[in-house]
Amino acid sequence: MKKQEYAIVDIETTGGNASGSRITEIAIIIHDGTNVLDRYETLVNPEQDIPPSIFGLTGINNEMVANAPIFDDISEKVLEMLTDRVFVAHNVNFDYSFVHHQLEQAGFQWSAKKLCTVRAARKIKPGLGSYSLGNLCNSLNISLENRHRAGGDADATALLFSLLLEWDDAGEIDKMIKKTAQDQRLPPNLPADDFNNLPDKPGVYYFYNQAKKVIYVGKAINLKKRVTSHFTGNNINSQRQHFLRDIHGISFEICATELMALLLECTEIKKLWPTYNRALKRFEAKYGIYQYEARNGYKYLAVGKLSKFQTCIHEFNSQYDGINLLRTLAEHFEIDHRFCKYTRPEEGDFFQNNDTKALPDVSFHNEQVDNAIEFLLNNRPSFAIIDKGRSTDERSCIWIENGHFHGMGYIPRDVAINDSDEVKNYVTPYKSNQYIEQLIFAYAEKHPRKIFFNKQLFIS
């Protein structure tokens, strides 16, 4: 049987992601686990400008690569050296994504088993202060010359790899290069135990950066599967590349149901505002219902954009939702449509209505507007959603107070709950918002048998 060989690779590039950047230098060292068998190194013309910041880091400028081969010209050589060998690099997913992408652009379909020397060093030499190539070389007395050049970094990685093989009494490297090894998909700075501790249960997970700050919050029906999905595939998008490099830790909270996980995710994003959460930020309320009184004494209701200088009666994610509710209120409380404005007017617009024919009695009209506002503020439904718990010894509970998400928690199964006040003793309060309320009401409509202690039905 042919002895396993390794292609130890380092590249320099014009930027941080393969989709918009290109390779400027590549070095490949062929290693058989004992000796270096072959070596290849060349500058590469990236066919795009090298930014000054990259020149400052690597020392490679446009003039140096002007007469170098383009990647297409060396692609067959690169492919030949990589074929049937384990692809080894320090932070392997970065180098692999560039090489894979540029070989694909050159017309070659290629893939390989990968080995990350960052992750291997964490397993074989745990407890070091830093696992960057420079700091590892200092800690382990490895010679590192021509730092941030492909040849110098590849030589240092080869020396590191040889030492790791020598120290690997537990056979960690053989485990890692197996195609099914989970570690090979993990971000380079993520401790494997953080991932391995994830359960196959619903819940919310948190990604942390090096400063222990939450950078992403997500919900899952199956925590382990959902987190794994972040790390699979060969996505070369710059946002994903930066995202993976920033992940230094994971924590999680198990939830009994997917709905509870979704509600917790929403409230945590609102509280923590993590850098990489973008989707749910779009659901921030943007519109509200306002009340105005004109100089003629009539009160108006209007839908308009939220303003930090004015207080609205009720918030909405979209203008459409606000208009629908205002129309429903107007119909239910018999408010003259002329006193309902579906875009918030500039100050003074209320006073320009000269149509005084058959206007309602001002006192009666204003009382109806007050009744509509009172209903909107104080007469929305209160109810509990009772569902399965995290174990057979408990039940989960979500409590809605006057149409707003009040909180959620868990009730021991041997405790009898007879009224809403008892339910509230078991819930942890959370802040509500319009998006959360939409989720809860949509769920309640689909699952009426899970609704208990319903005190009030909202107009529809």
Automatic annotation (TrEMBL):
SMART domains assigned: EXOIII, GIYc
UniProt-listed InterPro entries: DnaQ, GIY-YIG_endonuc, GIY-YIG_endonuc_sf, GIY-YIG_UvrC_Cho, Ribonucl_H, RNaseH-like_sf, RNaseH_sf
Tagged with keyword Signal: no
Highest taxon of the lineage: Bacteria
Keyword field: Exonuclease, Hydrolase, Nuclease
PROSITE patterns in the record: GIY_YIG (PS50164)
All copies of domain GIY-YIG, residue ranges: 200-278
Record-level Gene Ontology MF annotations: exonuclease activity
Keyword flag Hydrolase: yes
Protein name (record): Exonuclease domain-containing protein
